Amino acid sequence: MQRCCTIRCWVWLAAAGLLGASGRGRAADASFLRGDANADGTSDLSDAISMLFCNFLGTSCTDCPDAADANDDGKRDVSDPIYLLNYLFLGEAAPPAPGQACGEDPTADELPCAAFAPCVVSDPDAISTSRGALRVVPVEHASLVLLWDSKAVYADPVGGAAKYAGLPPPDLIVVTHTHGDHMDPSTIRALAIDGTVVIAPQSVATAIAGGGGAGKGTVQTLANGDTTSVADVGVEAVAMYNITAGRLQNHPKGVGNGYVLNFDGTRAYVSGDTEDIPEMRALEEIALAFLCMNLPYTMTPAQAASAALEFRPSIVYPYHYSGQNPADFKELVEAGDAGIEVRLRDWYP
User: Fold this and answer.
1) Which residue, 10, 76, 126, 207, has most beta carbons within 10 Å?
2) pTM
3) Of 112, 103, 46, which Cα lies nearest the Cα of 76?
4) What's the confidence (pLDDT) of residue 247?
5) Which residues make up the CATH 3.60.15.10 domain(s) of the chain?
6) Of 74, 68, 73, residue with least CA distance to 48
7) What's the chain's average pLDDT?
8) What CATH homologous superfamily does 124-342 map to?
9) Cross-strand pairs, 270
10) Are 294 and 324 in contact (CB under 8 A)?
């Protein structure tokens, strides 16, 4: 009797107008478990309750709305908790794949799954935070995307929008400096949506304006040492520059920005183009770092490894390494501190 009453309650809520239609989704590709709406690793009554509270009553949600699409119809509505309750208590069909094991959505729809904590162990490019997983998407050379809490942060996007197909549109874009392998106004215009904020040094803001503007995006300037917050992500502009004689003109001090991005206490450092500068060595509590290494513009693997061993990020990705061997960096870092995880990825697909 109780089981049927539970289902009737859901139907009554729908009839009373307390349940709404699904919201706008954004495609992504994290692994998840369908029906596990509260991301606790199993499907049970609490997930049906979470679907109601999250989707229709405005309370907090996980960063994987796709997991709440229990019947895999590409929408979040009253049919999802009813489907799950029928499976749990009436022996009807289980949620479609991926319902029994972590996996990506085999069905094309607009519901996103930026991250899903119980499946993070199977994602080699994720790091746990207080608000779910922070996922790293290497794109190419110096371009990358960070997905967190249903938000997307793009760093130095270039090369056209097609390189970012299938990823959520950016809430935040950070641009380090004006060189063409880091800044492309046409790509920014193609990616930006209403509400996108582009953080950049003044030199980049001027170049974007002269290159046709940021489209629907809004440009906000930061100088070295300035801070702000966009979409719950803290942003600190840090120095990036050359210090070797004969290279000073490549990246003059004070012109470009590296960035420390704060994801509710998890700090990620994006170096941009820099040498082994004191400001980088002085960084603290960095969970995730992206370090450049190529000559004659930035660092050798040995210089980058020396810096990493000084500020000791928990995880570091060598990137922007054209002409260098990132395996040399990995070997040096691991020999100096086995506690630092070095992730080698193909940044030149």
Assistant:
1) 76
2) 0.69
3) 112
4) 87
5) 124-342
6) 68
7) 89
8) Ribonuclease Z/Hydroxyacylglutathione hydrolase-like (3.60.15.10)
9) 259, 290
10) yes
User: What is the rounded average pLDDT of the residues 70-94?
Assistant: 93
The string of pLDDT tens digits covering residues 292-337 is 999 889 999 999 999 999 999 999 999 999 999 999 999 999 999 9
Strand partners, 269: 260, 289
The kind and range of the H/E element at 245 are none
Query: Peptide bond before 96: cis, by omega within 30 degrees of 0?
Result: no
Q: Which helix (H) or strand (E) holds 295?
A: none
The region of weakest confidence among 26-35, 47-56, 83-92, 170-179 is 26-35
Helices (H) and strands (E) in the chain, counts: 8, 14
Mean pLDDT of 129-147: 93
DSSP 168: P
Quick one: 111 exposed, middle or buried, by C-beta within 10 A (0-12, 13-18, 19+)? Answer: buried
At what angle are helices 45-56 and 79-90 packed, to 10 degrees? 170
Closest CA to 71 of 35, 104, 42, 107: 35
Instruction: Copy the structure tokens of residue 151.
Output: 């938000």
